[in-house]
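Contributing new records

If you add data, match the layout below exactly. Sequence lines come first and carry their own label; structure lines follow with theirs. Keep one chain per record. Anything else will be rejected by the validation script.
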Amino acid sequence: MTDRRRAGSRARALFEHTWGSGAEVTASAPGRVNLIGEHVDYNGGPVLPIAIDRRTAVVAGPAPGFELISELDSQRIERLPDESPRGHWSDYALGVIHELEKLHVAPSGARLAVASDVPAGGGLSSSAALTVAIARALSRLAGVTLAPRQLAGVAYRAEHDFVGVRCGTMDQMVIANARRGSALAYNSGSGTFTRVPFDLPLRLVDTGVRHRLTGGGYNARRAECEAALDRLRQRWPALPSLAALPMADLVEALTLLPDAQARRVRHVVTETARVGQAERELLADRPEAMGQLLFEAHRSMSEDYEASCEEADLLVATARDEGAWGARLTGAGWGGMVLVLAQERSADRIVQVMQEGFERVWGRVPASWSVRAAGGVRATGSD
């Protein structure tokens, strides 16, 4: 039977079962849904994410060295701080330890038990939820309370520099700074953010397709964007990032690039514009107009960035046909979750039709659930 207790309760039970007593800190961090602004954070642009009410919990206690266990594999793992990555989930913890040591706020050793309600590879930033929660737990175990921006920096560098995911800073920033009932309008170029009220219910429909960010399309897309930026700087030497390319210069820019790079740049520039428009629509309380931007963003993600999948395209098309305000694949892509924005009274029907149509094609019923904008990381005795 599935354990329906919250992640913090499961992590504490796992810690006690594995090591007995000794737990001192429980930290938890949420997954996130990016409403709009995909693949622009590492290109210097704005994003509009929310934290969601599904969390990853980490229970920590002192120990001579570092030992870890997760409910996913139930295998106790010992890691040495000077080890290199080995393609295991514990690499994320080791990366956090390295970064905390640089700040002189790491404990000399720790036992960590992990449980999560954020599905891995589902486009909900399970890796950032894990690293932010571990950073909070270990720093608190060392008697230090890091500021949210510090936590985000530690988690980002652990994933980007140590694990090797060429991610941007969006996920860690929203997970560290989120507040219930609001989205974070975060500009990755300047590092600044404002809060935008967002208390609408969202539906998530799971494609069932899982990605792994340390390889494949994600890192390839970032490399393409970097190559495109190098080419465009021959024409505009002072161009700081792809997201900073003015819309007025887009047509000329596309003529200077190979086809694949041109389409990546078109996505980044148009997506940057859509984020600004989406923020304005939310502030004006126009969810229908916001929804149309979601459909446009998905089309760009699928056609120009080539980061969607057939399963997601089918779900989004069905949502449009059934009258949803908007829908799109959220997260890095190549699988994960489709978010659906719709009138509350019609959301159940729309999702049911999406599931039925998906089952006819793929032979399985995709899972779905409702989420709202939730708070960020916390360290507490309960979740």
